[in-house]
What we know:
It contains 16 helices and no strands. By secondary structure, it is mostly helical.
Amino acid sequence: MSQQIFIEVINLGFVGHLGSASLVAGVGLGNMYLNTTALAVLIGLNNGVATFVSQSYGQGNMRLCGLYLNRGRIVVLLAFLVMLPILLMAEGFFKLINMDAESSKYAQDYVKIMIPSLIFASQFDITKTFLNCFGRTNIQMVIQLITTPLHALWSYIFVTRYELGLQGTAIATITTTLINSVAITLYVTFFVPELKEAWFLPTRDSLRGMGQYLKMALPSMLMVCLEWWTFEIQTFFASFISVEATGSQVIILNMMYIYFCSTMGLQVAGYSLIGQSIGSQDIQLAKQYRKMIFIIGSAFSLIQCFSLYMLRFVYANLFTNILSLRDIISDTFRIIAFVQLADCTQGWLQGMIRGLGRLSEATYGQLFCLYCICLPLGWLFGIHFKMGLSGLWWGMMIGLSLLALFYIYLVTLRFNWDEVAKDAKIRSERDLQKDEDDKIHYKAENLEKFENDLKQPLIN
């Protein structure tokens, strides 16, 4: 997710120097469409792997880890086929909401060429999530630290040097995501022998248990999408205030995305450590991790809040030299600082919830807080009461604060951790038994076929 943001910023930067406002708008619209209709869905589905693999690893069942990974790969590829027609309707959608015709066409062209990169990005992301469950986070960081600067080089070569324009940005993105996917696959295949038992191609067994996997993957997808879409809808609301408010909102949102990337690290630690402890039936250790994450997460949230508030003028000057935008941004950042406090908190709490595998209640709470509180209050304060951009973010602060409190209630009072561990053990034993039964059935079929082949010449 973090690299995707930087890739989009680099793409926008190179396109911005081509001298066409419609082209810049097209890339911006294209990125928004890709993120909301495809990337959020794919990343959300991939997060279903986090619960199953971390708990199975805690139980010491490596083959089951591999089966869950392959089920995730199959699900995300099928989801891609479903969303393909939606991706091809980008131009029609933007025209429907009265966007500029030329910008809409550029957006569709951009989306079409970017489609292959989504496949590579989704496979890299699911492998990255898989490795996170084993506590192996360094390799993905190294790969992205190398390929992100290289993306700027590919963009220079294809966009500036060969003057391929819009197509150049897409080719550069495909190159970057392909390198990511190949590099992480080669790493697991040749340099991590201890994961060999969990790293195999999809088999017939991988297709079994899809219903159970989807029960976890779909709420996981909704948790990612509902949050992502909320911020995009809020940006749409900003367009009803003024052009300056819309421009300021885009800058503020990019800053918040950058801040939230660091929160993702705590989220990964949450689902990895707690998932492993639940899988190994060590409830006491899981609760110790909960306490540790609470302490570190709370301190981290306060640091983010304080830094945003104190550096609000610096960030405003960094992103724009337009005085009217600077004033709006610096003023809104006073509220954004406290929004970030709530957003960061609910972000690392999500990691614990994913580790426990109790996503349904969390999803309902998120749906209520974001779509019944955040957005309606944002519209009421920002547009109806004419509080401007600050009003939109007041609504967001209230809703996200309630969401963070709801998550705290879930992980401390609502969820029975002993029951969660028991359910994880039963599910693992059931899946393992199914796997063994399938192996026996497969061997019996082969033996019967072999016997029939031997009998056939005698009969003839």
